[in-house]
Amino acid sequence: MRNLILSLLVFFSSLSAHAHGPTPQKAKEAIAINAPVAKVWGIAKQFGAIADWQPDLKQSTGDGLLQSGGKRTLTFQNGQSLVEELDYYNEQEHEYSYRLKTENPQAFPTSSHTVELKVNAGDTPDSSVVTLKSRFYRGDTGNTPPAELNDEAAVKAMNQFFTHALNGLKSKAEQ
């Protein structure tokens, strides 16, 4: 009986060792901005207007809904587009979260992603800290994705998107 139990344990543990497929990836970036929370939030809260401060985007349009279900379409500099949808929006807490609604790995190399944006008070009344964090899967969820759609490409793209977005928001808010 003991040998049977040991054999079953070895068998089931070997199954998990041979599992394939994507694992969730994460990204998190933050920036200090020399502008009060109200000013920074006034810019960042316009879900459909991210192209006003995110230089990777040629255009963004939204349906104007600042609540769960609100949608925006992002058009990247390469002309490719994707759609994102708000999951959560809180005016008082200066935060929202959204997810990829319509994937397009040629626009952005993820097959799914969720992102949280939060504006907090900084060290002084005239400063803020903005944090972006995400959980996502690579653009190709197969066992052997091409280099442009693998985990590394997705992590690099998300971190770069966050860095450009935060630097753009900082530049706009500090004007």
Automatic annotation (TrEMBL):
The keyword Signal applies. The keyword Repeat does not apply. Residues 1-19 form the signal peptide. InterPro entries: Polyketide_cyclase/dehydratase (IPR019587), START-like_dom_sf (IPR023393). It comes from the Bacteria. Keywords: Signal. Pfam families: Polyketide_cyc2. This is SRPBCC family protein.
